[in-house]
Specification:
By secondary structure, the chain is mostly helical. The chain contains 5 helices and no strands. The termini are far apart.
């Protein structure tokens, strides 16, 4: 038997015991999606299998749902395998030595902040406030 890879075509028969409501729903999906029916069905199939795997997770695995309200970049960061391994190491450290400071290994790359042009906020109201408050006083004590 060959290995399953993304894009591989698989086929299966519906069991004779398939409920009529399921058959009806499949007909509705086919008429609604037309030529994209198989991609919609395969997406639902993979999603169902993924949910089943999550429910049957091994005892040595912890599944943490991704929080809602995060950006696509943050989601991609959390889904990266290296970042997941790092989060796992942090959890293990917190479990084993909760009162010790976490030290991260040094990496070859250092991330430097990106400065986009000006490093200050240019706002007319803020600028006016600063001029009135800080820049318009006399510090001379020459009376």
């Amino acid at each position: 038997m060959s290995e399953f890879i993304p894009g591989k075509v698989i086929s299966f028969r519906l069991p004779r015991t398939t409920p009529k409501r399921v058959l009806s729903h499949l007909e509705d999906l086919k008429s609604h999606h037309g030529r994209k029916f198989s991609s919609v069905l395969s997406s639902k199939f993979v999603q169902m299998l993924d949910e089943e795997i999550k429910k049957e997770k091994p005892d040595d695995m912890l599944v943490i749902p991704i929080p809602s309200g995060i950006s696509q970049d943050e989601r991609a960061f959390l889904q990266n395998e290296k970042n997941q391994a790092l989060i796992g190491q942090l959890i293990i450290h917190l479990l084993k030595e909760p009162d010790k400071m976490v030290t991260l290994p040094e990496t070859e790359q250092t991330i430097e902040p990106k400065l986009e042009g000006k490093s200050y906020i240019q706002n007319k109201a803020l600028q006016s406030f600063a001029q009135k408050t800080f820049l318009n006083f006399d510090d001379d004590d020459d009376d």
